[in-house]
Structure formats: structure tokens, C-alpha cells
Amino acid sequence: MSKANENKKRKEQTLYNTAFELFTTKGVQNTAINDIVREAGIGKGTFYLYFKDKYDILDKLVIRKTSALIKEAVEKTQTENTQKSIDELLDIIDYIVEYLNNNKLLLKMIYKNLSWGIYRKVFHNPDAFHNSHSIYQSFSQMIEEENLPIDNPEITLFLILELTGSVCYSAIILEEPAPMHVMKPYLFDAIRKLLGDKNLQKD
Fold this sequence. Notes:
Structural class: mainly alpha
């Protein structure tokens, strides 16, 4: 990579880091582009070389953060067993839930958009969904090995991530209709039902 490209990447990353810090401490509504560029030490004109407005950088941050979280959850919960099961998927979901429970500022910024880490990427790189994302690969393998009655894995995984994100936001941030430790067994039961698990039980 040339020095010019390295410099561009460095400035872009600085803007991402600064925006994330401000969005999670001051809030999106209370953060202006002027705040971001001032804290980053980068000219306002340079900001517009990378982003259309503050909501553009927010959207891209959500995609980056949710994608990284899902990837980390898959890696941290991997076992030596090559077979995939519903319990392993629930381990991934549990990791995500606990991570967000311990990182409430991140959850506030993500809001309920956990699925963006996979699905918003499709618009930019359609191959990334099927070929690059480990959770989709694990999910597809689980469906095949468990012989689950699922016709459309993409939509089913989308529903699971959307449900998880919504429950996390409501239960962790708002504590509605109950705190997360109360809601988690119901979340897991709902996921099992979505998957058509014949051995449905509360965790």
C-alpha cells in the first residue's frame, strides 16, 4: 500500500474512532460533525471525502461494530467438535447478550440493529454474506446436520439476530418488560421454536 493510501486509511480510522467515542459518550443527537473533526484533528472537508453526514458514519460504525461482535462471538465459542448444534448457536447468542450487557454504551449506539453486521454488507459485497461470514457458515452447517425444517437460512438467521438485538435493547437498556436475566430463557425458547427444535426446553 502506498503512503498516500496509508494516510487515507489512517485518517478514515481516526474519524471512526473519534465518532465512536463521541457517539457513545455524548450521544448521537448531541454530537455534530464539527465535534468529530475537531476531536480528530482533521479538516471538515476531509470528513466529507469519506462520509456524507454524521448518520452515514454512524451507519458504517454500526455495521463495523456488529460484524466484529458477531465474528468474535463465533470465534470465542468455537469447540473442537466439528458438528454444529442448536446449543452451539445459543452459546454464540449468549456471548453476544453478555457482551452487550457489559457494554451498554455500545448497545445504545447499535440500538436494535444487530443484524446489520451481516445483512447491510450484502449491499456492498454480496459474496461476503455467504463466503466470508463464519456465523452463516456455522448456521447452514447446523441446519444440515440437525436436519432442521428451515427453507430459507438467510431469513431465519436474520430473524434470530433481529430478535436478539431487540430483546437486548429493551431488557438491558429499558429493563422492559423485564431485566435480561429474566428475558434470556424466553429468548432462547423463541429461537428454538424458530428453528423447529423438537427438544424444546428452557435453558
